[in-house]
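Hi everyone, sorry if this is the wrong subforum. Our group has a chain we'd like a structural model of before ordering constructs, and none of us has done structure prediction before. Sequence below.
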Amino acid sequence: MIRHFVFVKFKDSLSKADVAEMVERFARMAEEMDEVAAFEYGPNNSPEGLTKGLEHCFNLSFATIADRDAYLPHPKHEAFKEVFVPTIADVMVFDYEAAE
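Answer:
Right subforum, don't worry. Here is the predicted structure as tokens:
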């Protein structure tokens, strides 16, 4: 299983409704794609203060590396990024292969 984490800080100019819309769009895109095995989302709630300003996490799971690699250039993902990227101030992506 491949875990694909997207850590985000949305632009300060976005309202809570704007952020909620981006989350909804992300979830809808993931739901529509056969390559995505699972999708989770959540805002940071760690008390440690070690997020380096990143406030939200999106976690996509893929059954195989091939599924992840097909997702990245997929037209639905590319179309989503056109809307999503302009709303973010900072982003970090981290992938790993989960141990069985």
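For your construct planning: The helical segments are 16-32, 65-71, 75-84. The mean pLDDT is 95.
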